[in-house]
Design goal:
The protein is of the alpha+beta class. Strand 1 and strand 2 form a beta hairpin. It folds into two domains: about 50 residues, no CATH class; about 35 residues. A two-stranded antiparallel ribbon has the order 1-2. A two-stranded antiparallel ribbon has the order 3-4. The protein contains three helices and four strands.
Length: about 90
């Protein structure tokens, strides 16, 4: 599903997540199955490079909702923090 447009206004950018550039997407809705599973839309998998077998973390915030994050991206970020904390700058 492509980003919904309303005239010249991009509803995703204007209503959901205003930002410059093409950084936000609305992929449509998904239905939760009986076992709590969802299907990530094909366009989302392609844009974010999600392949079968990839490990995703499900993060949650009671005020903002749920987010899916590739586990390897978060692992790289954690590694960067640990490396920085073990080598403090001399400011």
């Amino acid at each position: 599903m492509k980003n919904k447009k309303c005239g010249k206004e991009d509803l995703v950018s204007e209503l959901v997540a205003p930002r410059k550039g093409e950084t936000k997407h609305l992929f449509g809705s998904v239905k939760v199955g009986e076992r709590g599973q969802i299907v990530i839309p094909k366009e989302a998998r392609e844009i974010f490079g999600i392949e079968p077998g990839d490990l995703l973390l499900v993060l949650g915030d009671l005020e903002r909702g749920l987010a899916l994050v590739r586990a390897d991206a978060l692992q790289d970020f954690a590694r960067m923090i640990l490396e920085t904390s073990s080598h403090p700058r001399d400011d």
